[in-house]
């Protein structure tokens, strides 16, 4: 086993162990310290809470690291299909360790947090990342997909507010909801057209043909699966955002009417 392969395997294993420890031990201790409401949650709520704490930690780590690679890693920018994947491999190995850890948690606590869409999402991502780590190809694309994780902290924070029974119209809840919708749209939806334009631009070229049929099909099919799910989630988030904005307007109109009567 060469040095790069050892680094990848070690990183995946270290990531898996770290996120398991975060879920089973660190999150319980940390959450009880920073959020008094955590201790009053039911056992089931605590399971999902810890799962989302781990998700947030993972998203911030690979999202910020991925953004740095996206902007400054000259090797993968110069050659998105075959550029040196050294930095990207570390980021994808961290993400892979998390996905395996989260799959295990989802299956173990299926009655509480089991979700077939998350299983499909995790398996599709792991399948695609396998080729990046094994063959050193499509590093730029693999890292580009990880930028979608930048939206997860806002999605998780929305759930935290709901679990702690924050009012839907509280300032913190509304601001987070707007940020969640905007960031999700930018990193998961706006990114779709450029990705498929790039696929079209390299289709049939010599570097593309060198990938081989299996990797070509795996690349495109996994992207399609993930993007269909992202569009479905975006529609759900948008409906929720529109509903909240509509209720806020109704509340303001009602208050204005009451104030008018008082005058």
What does this structure look like?
The protein is an all-alpha fold and 263 residues long. The protein has one domain (1-260). The protein is built from twelve helices and no strands. It has helices spanning 3-34, 43-72, 74-78, 86-108, 110-113, 116-135, 139-146, 152-163, 171-190, 192-202, 206-210, 213-262. Helix 1 crosses helix 2, helix 2 (43-72) runs antiparallel to helix 4 and helix 8 runs antiparallel to helix 9 (171-190). The radius of gyration is 21 Å and the shape is globular. The termini are far apart. Keywords: Membrane, Transmembrane, Transmembrane helix.
Number of helices: 12
Q: What is the first-to-last residue Cα distance?
A: 81 Å
How many beta-strand segments? 0
The count of domains is: 1
The radius of gyration is: 21 Å
Supply the helix-strand structural class: mainly alpha
Shape: globular
Could you name the key traits of this structure?
mainly alpha; TLC domain containing 4; transmembrane helix; transmembrane; TLCD
Lay out the secondary structure.
Blueprint: H1 3-34, H2 43-72, H3 74-78, H4 86-108, H5 110-113, H6 116-135, H7 139-146, H8 152-163, H9 171-190, H10 192-202, H11 206-210, H12 213-262
Helix pairs in contact: 1-2, 1-4, 2-4, 2-7, 2-8, 4-6, 4-7, 6-12, 8-9, 9-12
Short description:
This protein is mainly alpha-helical and 263 residues long. 84% of the residues lie in helices and 0% in strands.
């Amino acid at each position: 086993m060469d040095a790069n392969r050892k680094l990848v395997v070690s990183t995946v294993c270290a990531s898996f162990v770290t996120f398991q420890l975060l879920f089973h031990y660190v999150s319980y201790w940390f959450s009880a310290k920073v959020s008094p409401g955590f201790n009053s949650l039911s056992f089931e709520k605590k399971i999902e809470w810890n799962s989302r704490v781990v998700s947030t930690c993972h998203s911030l780590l690979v999202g910020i690291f991925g953004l740095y690679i996206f902007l400054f890693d000259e090797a993968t920018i110069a050659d998105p299909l075959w550029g040196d994947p050294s930095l990207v491999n570390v980021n994808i190995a961290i993400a892979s360790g998390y996905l395996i850890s989260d799959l295990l948690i989802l299956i173990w606590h299926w009655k509480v947090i089991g979700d077939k869409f998350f299983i499909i999402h995790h398996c599709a991502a792991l399948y695609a990342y396998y080729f990046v780590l094994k063959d050193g190809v499509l590093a730029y694309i693999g890292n580009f997909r990880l930028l979608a994780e930048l939206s997860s902290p806002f999605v998780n924070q929305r759930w935290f507010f709901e679990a702690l029974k924050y009012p839907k119209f509280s300032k913190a809840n509304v601001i987070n909801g707007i940020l969640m919708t905007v960031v999700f749209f930018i990193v998961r939806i706006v990114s779709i057209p450029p990705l498929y334009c790039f696929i079209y631009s390299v289709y049939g070229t010599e570097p593309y043909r060198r990938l081989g049929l299996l990797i070509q099909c795996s690349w495109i099919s996994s992207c399609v699966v993930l993007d269909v799910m992202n569009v479905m989630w975006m529609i759900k988030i948008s409906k929720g955002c529109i509903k909240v904005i509509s209720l806020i307007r109704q509340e303001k109109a009602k208050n204005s009417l009451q104030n008018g009567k008082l005058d």
